């Protein structure tokens, strides 16, 4: 039987029965949304990679234990584990500072007359992205979670609702309020986006 065609539930069951290949398939299926959700919070590739590995170690341990009970989609569960690990890391390292560096090869192909304006534009865009990221982290937890899962983990609203154990209308409402709150913060600080 081809494991690639199996549902997440079937892969979990096979993994719990002692087969390792099904867990590797789950990792491949959900590496992008899990990594995206983690990276959004920590904004550091190396830290995100470490937390990504920790996410799947934690998931593996939990799946092998007799405590695992399927409560929704595996994808939402994995993203939630990763996001929670990232938020824990962020809380422990609140004093972190993020430095954006331009590498020489980022603008080597540019002519002299336009390279300084492009570099300046890149720095402005990175500062705007950093400000937006900080605004998102200021949102109430449920609004922040919906926004991150939708825009950075690329999950559908139905999947987000299942992952958060809420209904679709509640999830859509949280997204609406997240957008309203983000607009207020942007208007208040006059950040151009």
Find the structural class using helix and strand composition: mainly alpha
Instruction: Describe the global form.
Output: globular
CATH class of the largest domain: Mainly Alpha
Considering DSSP H and I runs of 4 or more, what fraction of the residues is helical?
over 70%
Major sheet attributes: none
CATH topology name of the largest domain, in short, is: Rna Polymerase Sigma Factor, Chain: A
Number of β-strand runs: 0
Averaged pLDDT? 78
Number of domains: 2
**Beta strand %:** under 5%
* Count of discrete alpha- or pi-helical segments spanning 4 or more residues: 8
Give a description of the structure.
The protein is mostly helical and 193 residues long. It folds into two domains: 1-98, Rna Polymerase Sigma Factor, Chain: A (Orthogonal Bundle); 101-193, Orthogonal Bundle (Arc Repressor Mutant, subunit A). The chain is built from eight helices and no strands. The chain has helices at 8-16, 21-42, 45-64, 74-92, 112-138, 141-151, 157-163, 168-189. The radius of gyration is 20 Å and the shape is globular. The termini are far apart. Mean pLDDT is 78; it is low at 95-115.
């Amino acid at each position: 039987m081809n494991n690639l065609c199996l549902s997440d539930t079937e892969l979990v069951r096979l993994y719990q029965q002692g087969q390792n290949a099904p867990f590797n398939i789950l990792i491949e299926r959900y590496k992008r949304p899990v990594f995206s959700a983690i990276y959004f919070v920590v904004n550091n590739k190396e830290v995100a990679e470490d937390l990504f590995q920790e996410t799947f170690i934690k998931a593996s341990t939990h799946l092998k234990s007799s405590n695992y009970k399927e409560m929704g989609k595996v994808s939402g569960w994995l993203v939630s584990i990763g996001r929670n690990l990232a938020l824990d890391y962020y809380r422990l390292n609140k004093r972190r500072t993020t430095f954006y560096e331009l590498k020489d090869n980022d603008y080597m192909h540019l002519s002299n007359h336009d390279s300084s304006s492009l570099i300046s534009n890149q720095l402005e865009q990175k500062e705007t992205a950093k400000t937006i990221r900080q605004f998102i982290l200021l949102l109430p937890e449920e609004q922040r979670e919906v926004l991150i899962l939708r825009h950075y983990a690329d999950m559908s609203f139905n999947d987000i609702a299942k992952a958060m154990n809420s209904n679709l209308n509640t999830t859509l409402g949280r997204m609406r309020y997240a957008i309203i709150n983000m607009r207020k913060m942007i208007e208040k600080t006059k950040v151009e986006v």
